[in-house]
Design goal:
By secondary structure, this protein is of the alpha/beta class. The protein is built from eight helices and seven strands.
């Protein structure tokens, strides 16, 4: 059986699209989710192995890691997509807010990488094929954010562990990050906000989730890219 791809946060948006993408390629998918949603029904019917896990609860994270280490001997890739986007204006206690952002974007990916690296190496050894870890980061990791300080800091830390794991796991496992800006508006975003948001980039439109799929495929197909944070921002850095 072909080695699966592990994707965290598959219940919606990027994670859901990634899971559907690999399903269409007949590549087995293991997906984690925090809250069940109707969108997951199609993934179940398509054979995706779904694992419920609240990344804010260490007991649940440890249980999932134990399960995966016992059940999965080979992995083709890990894609760290699970995310939370809480602004300082939410009223969350600042210490708790920073802990939460660091946990979902750094702590849990770090634990999963450490625990499942042997499965990635096992695939590389058996099939003579490089394997991948892809961290889904964010444009604001480099720029910062006045409204999402803890979030931006945690994504910067995610970029940094990308470098460390790339060095540790080479040459059998490539480790990269993708840093998107505006890919897809949320339902309910008003027209005034949309018009203002797209003007922040040289290419003033939504990138679309398809752009991220192209980047993921590119990184997984490459035999010569590791330890990089790949921008996907429409040229925002030049505005």
């Amino acid at each position: 059986m072909e080695s699966p791809v592990l994707i965290t946060g598959v219940a919606r948006r990027v994670g859901l699209v990634l899971a559907e993408h690999f399903m269409a390629l007949d590549i087995p998918v293991i997906g984690t989710f925090r809250s069940d949603r109707k969108e997951l029904d199609a993934l179940r019917e398509g054979g995706v192995r779904l694992i419920e896990c609240d990344f804010y609860e260490q007991e649940q994270v440890s249980a999932v890691i134990d399960t995966l280490r016992n059940d999965v001997t080979h992995l083709r890739a890990i894609i760290h997509n699970a995310s939370d986007w809480i602004p300082e204006s939410s009223g969350e206690d600042p210490a708790r807010l920073m802990d939460k952002m660091m946990r979902v974007h750094v702590n849990v990916p770090y634990q999963l990488n450490m625990a499942l690296a042997p499965a990635l190496v096992a695939h590389s050894d058996e099939y003579n094929e490089l394997t991948d870890i892809v961290h889904i980061s964010d444009y604001v990791a480099e720029k910062g954010s006045k409204k999402h300080i803890a979030y931006a800091a945690s994504k910067a830390a995610m970029n940094n562990i990308t470098l460390s794991f790339a060095a540790q796991l080479a040459p059998k496992v490539k480790v990269n990050a993708i840093a998107p800006a505006l890919l897809k508006f949320n339902e309910g975003d008003d027209e005034a906000y949309k018009k203002k948001a797209v003007q922040k980039a040289l290419l003033p439109w939504e990138g679309g989730f398809e752009e991220l799929l192209v980047m993921v495929d590119y990184l997984m197909a490459s035999r010569f890219i590791t330890g990089r944070v790949m921008p996907l921002d429409g040229g925002r850095h030049l505005k």
